[in-house]
Design goal:
heterodimer; A: Rossmann fold; 10-stranded mixed sheet; 7 helices; 22% strand; globular; B: alpha+beta; Mth169, Chain: A; Phosphoribosyl-aminoimidazole Synthetase, Chain A, domain 2; 7-stranded mixed sheet; 29 helices; 33% helix
Chain lengths: 272, 992
Amino acid sequence: MSPTPKAIVITGNGTNCEREAAQACRLGGFHADIVHISRILSGEVTLDSYQFLNLTGGFLDGDDLGSAMVHANRLKYAVVAGDGERVLEQISRFISAGKPILGVCNGFQLMVKMGLLPGLDGGFDRTATLTFNDSGRFEDRWVTLLVDEDSPCIFTKDIQHVPLPVRHGEGKFTVRDDQILDQLKARRLLTVRYMDAATGKATMTYPDNPNGSVEGVAGVCSPSGLLFGLMPHPEAYLHRVNHPRWTREDLPEEGAGVAFFRNAYEYVIQAL
Amino acid sequence: MAVRIEVGYRDGVRDPRGERVVREALELAGINLQSVRTVSVYTVDIALTEQELEKVASGPFTDPIIQEYAVGRPVGGVFDLLIEVGYRPGVTDNAGRSAGEAVSQLLGRSLEPHEGVFTSIQYQIHGDLSEDDAHRLASEVLANGLIHRWQVIPAEKYDLSTGLEPEVPRVSLIGGGRVQEVELAGGDEHLMKISREGLLALSLKEMKIIQAHFMDPDVQKNRKGMGLGPKPTDVEIEVLAQTWSEHCKHKIFNAIIRYEDEEGNVETVDSLFATYIVGATERIRKERGEEDICLSVFKDNAGVIRFNSDYSLVFKVETHNSPSALDPYGGALTGIVGVNRDPFGTGLGANLLFNTDVFCFASPFYSEPLPPRILHPRRIYEGVVEGVEHGGNKSGIPTVNGAVVFDSRFLGKPLVYCGTAAMMPAVVAGKPSHEKKVCVGDRVVMVGGRIGKDGIHGATFSSEELHEGSPVSAVQIGDPITQKRMFDFLLIARDEGLYTSITDNGAGGLSSSVGEIARDTNGAVLHLDLAPLKYPGLDPWEILISEAQERMTVSVPPRNLARFIELSEKMGVESTDLGEFDDSGYFKATFEGRVVSCLSMEFLHEGLPQMVLDARWEPPQLEEPVIRVARDPAATLLELLGRLNICSKESIVRRYDHEVQGGSVVKPFTGVCNDGPSDAAVVRPILDSFEGVVVSNGIVPRYSDIDTYAMAANAVDEALRNYVAVGGNPAWAAALDNFCWCDPVQSEKTPDGTYKLAQLVRANRGLYDAVTTFGIPLISGKDSMKNDYIMGDIKISIPPTLLASVIGRMEDVRQAVTMDLKKTGNYLYILGETADELGGSEYYAHLGYIGRQVPVVNFLKAKERYDRYHQALRQGLVRSCHDCSDGGLAVALAEMAFAGDVGLTVNLDAIPAAGNFREDVTLFSETASRLLVEVTPSASQKFEELMGDTTWARIGQSTDVHRMVIREGERELISLSLDEMKRAWQEPLSGL
C-alpha cells in the first residue's frame, strides 16, 4: 500500500460535516478526499482505492422520513454506472477487506438504518435504531463520553473519557429486544456511553444523557471493532479552541477528537 | 388510483411528536388531552404493484424496530377522535418529495410528472373533546389554514377496517399560457382599481407613468414591430410592479425628503441611501486609503470585504417579516434559506460560513384577546424558532449569533432578521471572485427548484401593510435539501469557471433576477414556455414573477453550456436554458414563439421618478419620572434579570447547531456550566489557520420612543462594543444596516407619516455619525418599510427598529476573551463613564415609564476606549470582558459572576459618574460604550497604563464567596447568591 493511507469522506444529499471530517482524517495521519456521492455512482471513484471510509454528519435528504432513511434506501438500490455493480457490493467488499468505517451522527444513523451496525450477524440485519430524543428537540450541547476499554472498537484505543458535542434530534439508541441488548453488552459492543461527570458512570439523566438512549449508549461498534458509529462529533473537537471552556481551563493544544482518527490511522498502518 | 400507506409507532414506543401536541394543546389552546399517538400517512399516487407497495412501505417508509405499517388500511388502535392534517395543493411537501425519491430509487426509474407521494400526519387523540374543540385544536395548534387542510373524525364515525379514503392534493389548473391585455385608458379610479385588484402595490403616480409610457407613439410603433398590441400585457404590468415595488426599489430610501426640524429649519435630503449609507462608506474608504477593507459594496446581493490575501468575506442580513406573520414556520424557514442565496449569489459565488438571526416578538405569555388574522405570539415564537432551526441546521450552516427582543407592538408584525456570512477564495478560475459580468450571448440558465404558483406577489405583498386581502400565495415553505444540492453543484461549476455571473431568484422571481443582471449587457430574452413547472397550467406572467424557492439564475457562455448541463444532471440538479442575454436594450419574454412582454431596459430601471416626501421632527413630549420611594435594589435586580429582554434565551439557542463546519471558537454560551451569555461569536473559517471572523449585533428599539437618532447610534455602539469585547479588531470591521420601519409616508391611513419619516431621517443621521466616527464602513443592508397591521379600526405599528450587525477579523482566535469571570482574587474594571440615562431603559420599562434621558453615545471617546482595550486584549492582559447593555451595570455584573461561578464585590462609589445621582441610576442606567473587564493583579499595572487618560476605574474584585455584593460606602446595596440570580435569569423562557 501507499505510504500515506487514504481516507474518503462521502458527501451529497445533505451531508454537512465533510470539511471538518476530512481535516480530522488529515490530523490523524491520512490523506483525505471529500467525494460527492455522484462521483461514486458515476464510477469515477471507487471505495476500493481507500482504506478508511467516513460517513459523516448532516441531514441526508432532510431526514424527512426519519433520519437517513432515504439514503439507506438509495445505497441499497443504487447501481454504479458502467459496470452495473451495486454500491452496496462496494461497501461489502470494503468491509470484507478489513477496512474501518466511521459513522458520526447522521452517518451513524445511516449505518444503523442500513443494518451495518451493530452488525451482529455480519450482514445487514436491522436490530437497532436511533429515534427522536426524549426532549422531542434538536439540541447542541457538550457531553462527556465514557469509553468501554474492553470494547473491540479500534477507534477508541487508549481513550477513557472524552468531551464532545452532540448536535441531533434523533439520537436515542433503541434495540429490537432485550436479547439484542444482552448480546451487545456481552460482546462489549456498546463502546461509548454518556457519562455523569460527578460519578464517572454512564447516565440516563438529562442533560448529561441528552436523548434518553438505553443504557446511556452514545455509540456502538461491530463485533470486528472496525465499524463504529456514534452520535457525538469527534471531528468537532480538533483543537482546544473548539472546547466550550477553553478560555478558562488548561487543555492540551490538540482536541480530544483527533485520537479517534489517529487510532484508525494506526490500525490501517499496522493491519492493512 | 392512489393508495394510503400508514406508518405508526409500535405499542410501548414513545411518540415525542404526540407528547408535544399534548403539551401545546394545553399551552396554546387551553385544551386538555390525555394522550396523542401520531401516524405518518403517505398517499402514493404512483402505479405500483402490490409487491412494490409492500416493499416501499416496509423499506424507506418504516423503521422496523419501532414502527409498523399498513398498506391501504389503517394502523393504530382505539382513540376518541382523529385529526388528519395534510398540505393544500401546491404547498411544498418536503417529506413527500423525499418519499417520491425513495420510490423512484426502489423502482430504478424516475417518476412521471403526474406521479407523486403526498404526506399528511394523523393525530389519534385520547381525551374528552368536542368536534368544535378538535377544529380549534387543528387551527390553533396543529395546522395553519393557509397551507394545510384537515379533517376531524370522531371514533364512532371511523371504520377501523378501512380507515380514510386516499386524497391527493394535486394542483389541477385548467388551461394556462393565457396572456391578457390591460386596458389602461381611464381615470384615476380606474388605474387604482387595476393596482389594487392585481395586488400590484403601485401608486397612482406610478400607474400614470406606466399609462403615459404605453401611449408614447414611439413605444407604440416599436411594439407593433414585435407583434404586440398598443395595450400592455399582464406580463408587462407584473414585471413593472415587481421591479418598481418598494421591496425591490427602496423608493422611500431613495426619495427626495424635505426635512424640517423642531425649530423650523428646513433641509433637503436627496436620497437617504445615497447621503447616509453610501455616503458614509465612501467617506470612510477615502479616509482609510490603503487600509480600506471593502471589495464590493452595495452593488451585489451581499457586501464583500477582505479577510486575508487568499480569502474574502461576504455578509448579508435580510428580513422576512410579512410571511412570518402569516405562517411563522414557513415564513422563517424561507427567510433563512432565502438569505443563504444572497451571499451564495455574490460575486461568482461563496461558501456559506454561518448564520445569525434576530427575532422581535410580542410576549409569548400574551393573554389579551387577539385582533383578527393575528396569530398568538407564542405560536409565532414557536414557528419562527423552528423554521430557522430547520433552515439553518439542515443546510449545515452554524447559527452562531443572534438576539431576541420583546415589545408588545411586535404583535402587529414580528421581525425576523436572518443573516448569512460566507467566504470565497479571492481568486476563482483565474478571476477576482467578487466581480462578475454577464457577456452578450451568454445563456440565461435557471438552476434548482421548479416554478409553481407559490410566492406570487411576495415582493408587492411585503411592500404593503398586513391587511384583509393579503395574498395567501405569498406564503411558502423552503426546501433546504434541494437548495443544498444546488449549492454543492454550483460550487463545482464555479471552480470550473463555467459561468460568468450568478444571482438568486428571490423577490420578483425571474423578472427581477434576469432583469437585474441583464443590465450588464443591456437586454435579455426569455422563453417562458421552456421553464420547468411544478404542475401545468401557469400563465406566462406567473412563470415570470413566481418566487418559488431554491432557484438561482446564472449566465453561461455557450461554449460551457453542455458541460454545465452535464455536471448538473450528474449531481441530480435541474438546470434549464431559458434564453439569452443580449444588447437589444429590451427585456423581452416569449411564450410558444410569441412575444408576450417587451419593456425597454431604460424604462424598467430608470422610468420611476424619485418620490418627494415631507418629514417633520417634533420631539415627543416626555417627562423624566420622579422616583420618590427607593426600591430595594436587590429585589429590583432579580426582577430585571427575569425580564424577557434580559433573561436567558438558552432554550432557543440550543436548538441551533452552532458548531457544524468545525470552526466554533466563542460559542453563544460560555462559562463553568456553558450557560453564560456571550457578547459575540468568534469563528475560525480556515481550519488550519488561527485567523478568526467575529460577528455581533446591536438592536434597541425601545429608544425610538424618545429619539431614533439615539436608537441608531446605540445600536451601532452595542454591536461594535460586543465585537470588540470578544477580541474583534476595531480597525478591521464592517457593518450592515437593516431598517424595519412602520409606513413613513403621510396618507389617510398614516396621519403621522411626516413624524415617522423624520424618525427615519434621524436614525440615518445617527447611523452615519456612528459609523463614520468609528471608521466602520457599511457594506450592505436592507430596509422593510411597511411593518404595520391595519384591520378595521385597529392599527398596530412596530417601533422603528435598526439592526446593526458588525463583522470583521481577529488575527489570532487564541486571544479571544469570554464574559465569564475566571478566578477569585482578580480585579474588576469599568471602562467608560456612567450617566443619568435611564430613558428607554429596561428599568424604566419595568416600572412602566419611558423617560426622556436616552443614552447619548460619545463616538470619539468610545472609539479611543475600544482601540486601547483591543491593545490590552492583544497583549493578553484581559481575563474576561462583558459589555453593559439592557439592564445596565448591575445586570452585566451579575451575568459575569454567575457564568464564572465566581463571587464579586463591587464598590459603587468607585464608578466614574457624570454627576451625583441616585444608586438606582448608577446600577441600571444604560449609558453606552461601557465595558467591564477582569484583570489579574499582576497584569493590572500594565492594563492601567494602557487605558491611560481614558475614563476607567477599578471598581471591585472577584471573591471566593458565591455571592455578588455591591456596596455604596459602608452600605450594602445588593447581596445576592450566584444561584439565586442565575435562577431568576434562567427561569422565564426555560419551559418554552
